[in-house]
Amino acid sequence: MSGADGADVDLTDPVLASEAELAFEGALRPRSLAEFVGQTRVRGQLQLLLTAATLQQRTPDHILLAGPPGLGKTTLAMIVAHESGRPLRMSSGPAIQHAGDLAAILSSLVPGEVLFIDEIHRMARSAEEMLYLAMEDFRIDIMVGKGAGATSVPLDLSPFTLVGATTRAGLLPNPLRDRFGFTAHLEFYDDAELEQVLARAATMLGLDVDREALVEISGRCRGTPRIANRLLRRVRDYALVHTGRADLATVNAALDLYDVDALGLDRLDRAVMQIILTRFGGGPVGLNTLAVSVGEESETIEAVVEPFLVRIGLITRTPRGRVATPAAWRHFGLSQGGAALPIDDL
Ligand SMILES: Nc1ncnc2c1ncn2[C@@H]1O[C@H](COP(=O)(O)OP(=O)(O)OP(=O)(O)O)[C@@H](O)[C@H]1O
């Protein structure tokens, strides 16, 4: 995807978000379940779980939040802590590469603390095993010494609530998954919900946006609040520099400039579709082949790209691989079995 200066710009890539954007994202996070838009079922389930724990004056059960990036897992973890009036400790799977890393965190938790572990499926196996006992009995066994003389010393922990987030619930071992009292599967947001997210963000930005402009952005943000907020900022920029107002024409011009198409497909989505349609005649194509072809991790394709493409009906998953649907051929203006376009032309 090319920006105005010719540099590659990917509005959907959280890694490329500037510090200002991250600060903006933080400021936008809803602080309570009532403020949290959409995910009605999950909100109701969480509300019940938290209220029951408060009535019984105990720590809420451990919670697993599963779903693609940007749908609100971190926000919900913060809300769990805030609504139950407990402190929050944040960590992530990649930062826990040894059991000792986890032991250090667990042993320093204050009573009732909420421990959020993002990308929990990426934690080291030895730490995962330590977590089983910690979640169940609020206890860990610490190994002292090495070899034949090693002994395990039990250490009692303060009661805590673990909130784990994962884009790949299927990768968690069963013993870990079973120890969560509640698993919430976050879904992509529908257009009406995204309009609410955008309207709220526009108010916080002090941006006067037409309703039809909001509708247009909500249809192009991959069902994802994080992307909705980011696109809104680019529309704000465009209005500031060029048009003076955030109307439909401004939205179309800004999003076209950043190569966000009518369905909200980004560069990686399009690259994946190109491979399936033009190199493999519509598929089936295996996950690893796709990942190698577009130069991405297969985990990213499976957790980020594929759920969205399936949701909007451009691909289906079959036992033999991913297959393009007739809607995909239409969207890219290609006829099934027709001449292949050069990969870079789509
Ligand atoms: N339901 C919602 N209502 C309003 N804003 C939301 C909602 N969900 C997410 N957001 C906004 O979207 C942004 C991204 O949310 P968040 O960081 O919680 O997503 P995430 O699922 O944890 O993503 P990742 O897995 O990439 O960390 C936040 O700035 C938040 O304000």
Automatic annotation (TrEMBL):
Stored InterPro entries: AAA+_ATPase, AAA_lid_4, DNA_helicase_Holl-junc_RuvB, P-loop_NTPase, RuvB-like_N, RuvB_wg_C, WH-like_DNA-bd_sf, WH_DNA-bd_sf
Record's keyword terms, sorted: ATP-binding, Cytoplasm, DNA damage, DNA recombination, DNA repair, DNA-binding, Helicase, Hydrolase, Nucleotide-binding
EC number in record: 3.6.4.-
Cross-referenced Pfam families: AAA_lid_4, RuvB_N, WHD_RuvB
Binding site for Mg(2+): T74
Domain of life: Bacteria
MF term (GO), any: helicase activity
Reaction it catalyzes: ATP + H2O = ADP + phosphate + H(+)
The AAA+ ATPase domain, residue ranges: 59-190
SUPFAM superfamilies in the record: P-loop containing nucleoside triphosphate hydrolases, Winged helix' DNA-binding domain
Annotated stretches, region: Head domain (RuvB-H): 262-346
Tagged with keyword GTP-binding: no
Binding positions (DNA): R317, R322
Main location: cytoplasm
Subunit-structure text: Homohexamer. Forms an RuvA(8)-RuvB(12)-Holliday junction (HJ) complex. HJ DNA is sandwiched between 2 RuvA tetramers; dsDNA enters through RuvA and exits via RuvB. An RuvB hexamer assembles on each DNA strand where it exits the tetramer. Each RuvB hexamer is contacted by two RuvA subunits (via domain III) on 2 adjacent RuvB subunits; this complex drives branch migration. In the full resolvosome a probable DNA-RuvA(4)-RuvB(12)-RuvC(2) complex forms which resolves the HJ.
Functional summary from the UniProt entry: The RuvA-RuvB-RuvC complex processes Holliday junction (HJ) DNA during genetic recombination and DNA repair, while the RuvA-RuvB complex plays an important role in the rescue of blocked DNA replication forks via replication fork reversal (RFR). RuvA specifically binds to HJ cruciform DNA, conferring on it an open structure. The RuvB hexamer acts as an ATP-dependent pump, pulling dsDNA into and through the RuvAB complex. RuvB forms 2 homohexamers on either side of HJ DNA bound by 1 or 2 RuvA tetramers; 4 subunits per hexamer contact DNA at a time.
Family: Belongs to the RuvB family.
Domain remark text: Has 3 domains, the large (RuvB-L) and small ATPase (RuvB-S) domains and the C-terminal head (RuvB-H) domain. The head domain binds DNA, while the ATPase domains jointly bind ATP, ADP or are empty depending on the state of the subunit in the translocation cycle. During a single DNA translocation step the structure of each domain remains the same, but their relative positions change.
Protein name, UniProt field: Holliday junction branch migration complex subunit RuvB
Originating gene: ruvB
